[in-house]
Specification:
Number of helices of chain B: 22
Shape of chain A: elongated
Structural class of chain B: mainly alpha
Number of strands of chain A: 2
Number of domains of chain B: 2
Largest sheet of chain B: 2 strands, antiparallel
CATH superfamily of the largest domain in chain B: Sodium/glucose cotransporter
CATH topology of the largest domain in chain B: Sodium/glucose cotransporter
Strand content of chain B: under 5%
CATH class of the largest domain in chain B: Mainly Alpha
Number of strands of chain B: 2
Order of helices and strands of chain A: HHEEH
Radius of gyration of chain B: 25 Å
Structural class of chain A: mainly alpha
Distance between the termini of chain B: 59 Å
Number of helices of chain A: 3
Order of helices and strands of chain B: HHHHHHHHHHHHHHEHEHHHHHHH
Helix content of chain A: over 70%
Strand content of chain A: under 5%
Largest sheet of chain A: 2 strands, antiparallel
Number of domains of chain A: 1
Oligomer: heterodimer
Radius of gyration of chain A: 18 Å
Chain lengths: 86, 582
């Protein structure tokens, strides 16, 4: 196992990454999909009104992207702090 | 070939596959029974999680909800997918690192207390059992409609199938069967959607078809808005409910998803921590395939339904479909009582319109005496959809098999979660700690069989509250299990007293709020306040209260934990270890 200071740094980097991802998660679903959906609806994406699109399509695509982004970044962190599983 | 024969063949073939897989993947140790020997590839595990997660509610009900609630139903789409972000970032990798078989086992270890473990067992069983009743009912309904046999027989056949592959195979058998079930259900869901999208918009991708133009050049969603508003309904893409309630319901469903024990247990089955993170991503990919298709299915089904009934201009003498000329699917669903027509003005034609006040005057001037489609059950939309669009029989048979696959796979996952809580967390840890592996395996098979019988019995005598039950299952998982799991990882200071009080506060407040409006233990006569927005506290519906319950859980846990002694050193060390993968 890594020593204490590097473990603490690893955890800090992890928390920062999680918070970043969750901000995007919140903005896309609660922001674009619910709170500001009505104002976004004046913009159109083909036949979709934008707020409606975020609520029924866009947020789901973003969630998928976020998880993979998080998983890939965590793998890099694991390697950087040398905490990869054998 | 007749539809019924075709359905027997397709459903029978899928059952044969499930049983064959179960026999090949029999569990021979408790490790295989509870967590499939921790050897499942992350992509396959993602697929199994998808089937585990997507129940009859996702497959059958959701698109129907979207069809009739339009934009407001987005809460289900976001709520039931967004939870995977929480799961992947806040729970799954750490729980996998801990390496135990069950959710209560983690809570018991982390909070160094068998009491905490028992409270978690109670939360788990209540949430899972309420959820499984709905699945059993779904199986019964699918059988009774498509195989034209009594509801009870359908239920018994479903129980027998689950019994064979879940009791024999345990998590190992369930995992590989769920992979097959995922393939069946996603194929069954997307094929009709592709056909219908092609018919209406010429675009074979339903996700794009929904945003495309129709043959007359107008956008499909615009056209739907116009038709609905013209007939006195609310516009499809407009918001109807309160924003606060929408946000809270979305949050409840998200936290509930992340806290449901049968979903969490799936992440115990992968070999590494890294795999747990990726597996959550793959699970969401497979779920998103269905969840991004559902809005297209809903909107297109609604459009087809409106166009079937409103054949010409609103108010014109030829505007409405004559009852005599109604299509076959209409007659079939009338027989089930889920679709009902009442000729209020005795003109032999079907008038289907909404409650808009402005339109009421117009309707009166046409000589209409009220909406004549007195019942259009939302749950029939997905099942009736291929018939409404006039698709071939094999597609309809496929949808039946898909609905049954969705219900069976979720029921199996839930039953396993219940069985492992009883055999591993209750028997092994509290009553018979010296039980050897073989006896425990036997005990888990017996508790699984017992759980199936109880679920079947409740499915035979459903208290008549399918929708509320699902809300309760999510509310329970959200308000009781998710907060203590999360704090167990992210707060070293959280201790035994805090966790136990938190779980009880979250669970208690949520149950209380639901029971006040829905009746004590769902006996409606005992409801203390009428269940409508005017009576709800701050306009929060009982289904959305799980998010508030979770908040109580966090708050109570923090207050109690900070006013009592911190957890012992070795527990704090354990949390440190959880946080790093190696």
């Amino acid at each position: 196992m890594a020593d204490n200071t590097s473990a603490a740094q690893y955890w800090k980097a992890n928390i920062r990454l999680v918070i970043g991802c969750l901000i995007v998660w919140f903005v896309v679903s609660y922001g674009c999909g619910i709170l500001f959906a009505e104002s976004l609806n004046s913009i159109r994406l083909g036949g979709y009104k934008l707020g409606f699109w975020f609520a029924q399509q866009g947020s789901i695509y973003t969630f998928v992207f976020l998880i993979f982004f998080y998983a890939i970044r965590m793998n890099q962190l694991d390697r950087k702090f040398n905490v990869e599983e054998k | 070939m007749s539809l019924q024969l075709m359905t027997y063949l397709v459903v029978g073939a899928t059952f044969a596959v499930y049983i064959a897989i179960a026999i090949k993947a029999r569990a021979t140790s408790t490790g295989e029974f509870y967590v499939a020997g921790k050897g499942v590839h992350p992509i396959l595990n993602g697929m199994a999680t998808g089937a585990d997660w997507m129940s009859a509610a996702s497959f059958i009900s959701m698109a129907g909800l979207i069809a009739f609630n339009g934009y407001d139903a987005s809460v289900y789409l976001m709520g039931w997918t967004g939870g995977y972000c929480l799961l992947a970032m806040l729970l799954a990798p750490y729980l996998r690192k801990h390496g135990k078989f069950t959710v209560p086992a983690f809570i018991g270890d982390r909070y160094y207390s068998n009491t905490a473990r028992l409270v978690a067992v109670v939360c788990l069983i209540t949430a899972s059992l309420t959820y499984v009743i709905g699945q059993m009912k779904g199986i019964g309904v699918a059988f009774s409609r498509f195989l034209e046999m009594p509801y009870e027989y359908g239920l018994f056949i479903g129980m027998a199938i689950v019994f064979v592959y879940a009791v024999l195979g345990g998590m190992k058998g369930i995992t590989y069967t769920q992979i097959a079930q995922y393939c069946v259900l996603i194929f069954a869901y997307t094929v009709p959607a592709i056909f219908i999208s092609l018919q209406l918009t010429g675009n074979p991708v339903p996700q794009l078809g929904l945003g495309s133009t129709m043959t007359d050049g107008t956008y499909l969603l615009d056209k739907l808005d116009i038709i609905l508003v013209d007939l006195g309904f609310a516009a499809y893409t407009a918001q109807k409910g309160s924003t606060l309630d929408m946000a809270l319901l979305t949050l409840s469903l998200m936290i509930g998803t992340a806290g449901l024990p049968h979903v969490i247990a799936r992440f115990f089955t992968v070999p590494k921590v890294k795999d747990a993170r990726f597996s959550a991503g793959w699970a969401l990919v497979f779920i998103a395939l269905l969840y991004t298709t559902a809005p297209a299915v809903g909107a297109m089904a609604r459009l087809n339904l409106m166009n079937t009934i409103q054949t010409d201009e609103v108010g014109s003498p030829e505007g409405n479909l004559s009852y005599e000329e109604r299509p076959t699917w209409f007659m079939n669903w009338e027989k089930t009582g889920l679709l009902q027509f009442e000729d209020k003005n005795n003109d032999g034609k079907i008038q289907y319109y909404g409650p808009g006040e402005e339109f009421a005057a117009k309707a009166a001037s046409y000589g209409w005496q009220g909406n004549e489609m007195v019942k259009v059950d939302r749950d029939i939309m997905v099942l009736a959809n291929p018939e409404i669009a006039g698709l071939p029989n094999w597609v309809i048979a496929l949808v039946a098999a898909g609905g049954i696959a969705a219900a069976l796979s979720t029921a199996a996952g839930l039953l396993l979660a219940i069985a492992s809580a009883i055999s591993h967390d209750l028997l092994k840890s509290v009553f018979a700690p010296n039980m050897d592996d073989k006896t425990e395996l036997m005990a888990s098979r017996f508790s699984m069989a017992g759980a199936i019988v109880v679920a079947g019995y409740l499915g035979l005598n459903p208290p008549g509250f399918a929708a509320q039950v699902v809300a309760l299952a999510f509310g329970l998982a959200a308000s009781s299990l998710f907060p203590v799991l999360m704090m167990g990882i992210f707060s070293k200071r959280m201790n035994r007293a805090g966790a136990i009080c938190g779980m009880l506060a979250g669970l208690g407040s949520t149950l209380l709020y639901i029971f006040i409006y829905k009746g004590w233990f769902f006996f409606q006569a005992t409801a203390m306040l009428p269940d409508n927005p005017a009576n709800w506290l701050f306009g929060i519906s009982p289904g959305s209260f799980g998010a508030v319950g979770a908040l109580f859980n966090f708050a109570v846990a923090f207050i109690v934990a900070w006013s009592t002694a911190p957890p012992p050193k070795h527990i704090q060390q354990m949390v440190e270890n959880l946080r790093i993968p190696n």
